[in-house]
Amino acid sequence: MQLRKFVIGLLICISASAKAQLSGGLESNAAFYIDDAKIKLEQIEARQRIRSNNYLRLNYKLKNFTAGVQVESYEPKALLNYSPRLNKTNFGNYYLKYKNDKLRLETTLGHFYEQFGNGLVLRTWEDRQLGIANSIAGVRVKYAPLEAINFTALYGKQRNGLGFDFTEGTITGLNADVQLSSLLKIKKSKFGIGLSYVNRNQQKQVYESLNKNTFVTSLRGDFNLGGFTADAEYAFKSKEALVEFNTVRPSFQFDGDAYLLNLGYAKNGFGLSANFRRLENFGFYSQTQLAGNVYNQAILNYLPALTKQYDYSLTNIYVYAAQPNLSFEPSRNKAGEIGVQLGLFYQFKKETPLGGKYGTYVALNYAQWYGLKGKYDAAQRKYAANKFAFGQKYYHDASVEVRKKWNKKSSSVFTYLNQFYNARYVEEATGQVNTNTVVFDNTLRLKNSKSIRLELQHQWANAGFKNWVAAQVEYNFNSTWSLFTQDLYNYGNTDTAQKLHYYNMGTTFNKGAYQVQTSYGRQRGGLICVGGVCRFVPQSAGFNVSLNYSF
Amino acid sequence: MSKIFTVTLLLLITHFGAKAQVVPNIKLSTLNGESFDSQQLNQITAKPVVLLFWATWCVPCLNELTAINDSLDDWKNETKFDLYAISEDDSRTTKRVPALVNGKGWKFNVLLDNNQDFKRELNFSNIPYTIVLKNGKIIYRHAGYVAGNENELFKIIKENQ
């Protein structure tokens, strides 16, 4: 009923005012799961074979005011392995915002997305593929007394499911960013500092003895001179109870901290970036019991894996996810992670031996991550981690990407990736995997804006799923229509029943603000990861349709 | 509930979908950390403004920006337009943006959309995504990129001189 009233009200508003602006977007992802000879839905899931996730977003702007709403509809049921809280049709979020540029003031009532600094202490965002939409509902004020000084204050509850479904904690957040160089009227270099504080107050704790408040706070600075950039952040989390398998253990309480350092250097034709990070017990959730939950609910901070994010199917089989949390198991103790990443980008100029007629682009990346070295006592739930020493190795990747245009018609991207993946620690499964993957991605331009793309991939792995081979062909008729077909074949799998072909074929239609994709085939099971945050999906077969429209 | 959803949707698409929109007012930042108000884009009136939404990890986006960078000198000789490549990288990869942009020697402006606020207000989900503005109004939107799409974009630029 509420929804009906709201929609009618909104339509009246729209027709009443000519000066106002209405904008919005619709996304709809639907699947019809079928059982084929090899891939079958689990019995409990098979009751509902047709499913869809739908999102309708509307913004209504009049002068300094904007009102917005997102209605979400998971009908008759959400796609496989989304949180059970995402069910039926209801409001996802709703807000009213007042923004006055002259006063440098912005106030939001209702749901908002926010990030403080690098997101170590607070980030709320939406990722529909991952089922993350962890906005905070309450009030937020942003105020800049001077151009170079920005304050944010917020207060509210975090979204959990739909409608008025929030997690138990109440969140208070304060942030200040100051551009010192511009206050001091320094032109040659730029530098500034930032301070953040976020508190979670949970009145209804599982145990009386637990602290009702847990806070995180951070201090950061950044510096920029010519092509050189540096920024560093230190963050601290106050004591909270250990959570093991969704159970709160009140007698074991730990604090945590995080160090982050980013360095970069860039000039025309050359770029270098380096990251260092150490996390110790730094996961932060808006409800104690939800720490480490599989649906990524109640996440308050953003701790992405600092590794390169790859876009090809076989390079996404062993994906590292950051390991910020504590876990005690006699042979698998974890207190956090420490590691580095280096990235280099280089252009061999045109008309040089390696550059050829059009230039050659090279990107190198190296990342390695370890557990925290220290003394662990799993039985007593005690540990002492060294500050800057590498413990058990969790992951490494080393990659080369070469991008080359051969002539006016054809171009290629070649990627080589070497990985070490310690499944025992990263997934809390068993074993370690070493892989080598090559990808050869070729585009050929034909007459009248037509083109063909051919992608060939192979992965050698000494364990896990063992070897894979994959191919994809895409034919683009024009900017509107494309056809594609692909196959991923796990020919090396030692379990013959798992030696499967994951074939897929489909069409894409892109016209103006409309995008429609249809496909038929099999989806590989495993982790879907965006920005180092992952969601597990079981393998499936069937038809998929997705539609996007925005205005 | 779902009936209301459908009816509203149809109403919106048929009645209001056609109306040209202006760009929302969001704070973006430049590669050297200065803030850039998206309102500035609405104030460029003499020529079309192309916004290309991309990220460092998105292969089709890099294909698109590389192709456009290769044609940029020819396009600029024939027409007048401004081009902004807006990065949707989040804090996992945003520090890589300046290194990548310089490593590739891109000759157009690059902006950062830090927590994807701009993308959210423009109501689209997937990148690559292209928007063309003229006189502060959105006149063209296109989702996705395949080789050859840049020809259509150039056609739109030429038509709006």
Shape call of chain B: globular
Average pLDDT confidence of chain A is 91
- Helical proportion of chain B, percent range: 25-40%
Q: What is the CATH third-level topology name of the largest domain in chain A?
A: Porin
Shape-level CATH architecture of the largest domain in chain A: Beta Barrel
Radius of gyration of chain A: 25 Å
Q: Percent of residues of chain A in helical segments?
A: under 10%
Largest sheet of chain A at a glance? 24 strands, antiparallel, barrel
CATH superfamily of chain B: Glutaredoxin
The share of residues in extended strands of chain A comes to over 45%
How are the SSEs ordered, and which strands pair?
The complex is a heterodimer of chains A (551) and B (161).
Chain A: H1 2-16, E1 21-33, H2 43-46, E2 50-62, E3 65-74, E4 88-100, E5 105-112, E6 115-116, E7 122-123, E8 126-127, E9 132-133, E10 136-146, E11 149-159, E12 166-178, H3 180-183, E13 189-201, E14 213-225, E15 228-244, E16 247-267, E17 270-280, E18 336-348, E19 360-377, E20 382-405, E21 410-421, H4 423-426, E22 433-445, E23 451-461, E24 468-476, E25 481-489, E26 501-511, E27 514-523, E28 526-530, E29 533-537, E30 540-550
Antiparallel strand pairs in A: 1-2, 1-30, 2-3, 3-4, 4-5, 5-10, 6-7, 8-9, 10-11, 11-12, 12-13, 13-14, 14-15, 15-16, 16-17, 17-18, 18-19, 19-20, 20-21, 21-22, 22-23, 23-24, 24-25, 25-26, 26-27, 27-30, 28-29
Chain B: H1 2-16, E1 27-30, E2 35-37, H2 39-42, E3 49-54, H3 59-78, E4 82-87, H4 97-104, E5 109-112, H5 117-121, E6 129-134, E7 137-143, H6 149-159
Parallel strand pairs in B: 3-4, 4-5
Antiparallel strand pairs in B: 1-2, 1-5, 3-6, 6-7
Helix pairs in contact in B: 3-6
Keywords:
heterodimer; A: about 550 residues; mainly beta; Porin; Maltoporin, Chain A; two-stranded antiparallel sheet; about 5% helix; globular; B: about 160 residues; alpha/beta; Glutaredoxin; 7-stranded mixed sheet
